[in-house]
Structure formats: C-alpha cells, structure tokens
Amino acid sequence: MGDEVYDCIVIGAGPAGLSASLFLARYCRRVLTFHHNHPRNIYSHGVHGFLGHHGIQPTELLERGRCEVELHGGVIVEGCVTRVERIGDERFRVSAGGDDDGKDGGVQTFESRR
User: Fold this and answer.
1) Which end of the chain, N or C, is surrounded by fewer C-beta atoms within 10 Å?
2) Which of 86, 2, 53, 49 lies closest to 75, judged by CA?
3) How many structural domains comprise the chain?
4) pTM higher than 0.70 for the full model?
5) What is the residue range of 48's domain?
6) What CATH number has the domain bearing residue 22?
C-alpha cells in the first residue's frame, strides 16, 4: 500500500482525527488516517463530556470510531508519520514508518490532493 493517492490524509486517530475522517468518508472522499496506537488517555477510567458517550472506555470509543470510518470506506493504517512535503499547489506527499520512530525499515509514501 505505498505511493497511493487519496483525497485527504488525516494524521492522528483520536476522537478529533476520527471525526474528521468519518465526515470526509461520508462525503465520498478517499481518506487515509494514520494512528500510532498509543492514545494519551489509554489509562483513563472513562471519557467524560463526549456527547452520548459519558464514561465510555477510551479504547472502546476509538474502536467504535475506527469501525465507523472503515464502514464508510475510510482507510486506517498504523504508523508514525515521518515527513510531510508539499509537491504542488494542493498536493502533499506523506511518508510514514511502522513505529513511533519510523525506524522499522518499511517507509511508505502516500499522496493527498488536500
């Protein structure tokens, strides 16, 4: 899955990134979302103040979000973005590795129209 072109690339699959990805996918945009699988609130007892999900476990909220994004055609990949470069007026190239340091040897590149 390298050197593919997407309408939009979202870096981060927390609640905000997944919400953005979900709306883009629902509006028929080809969207790729990166996550590094180390949520900051992983040790919280629950999420509070998130409409309709008071007290939900952080991992459950993120899993539900990922499922919804994928249900609408979004693609979610695990990896740490190591570089973003502009390659035109509205195009970007994003490079990512498989771990937080991007040092797993398998760097992938993707292009985005936005």
Assistant:
1) N
2) 2
3) 1
4) yes
5) 4-112
6) 3.50.50.60
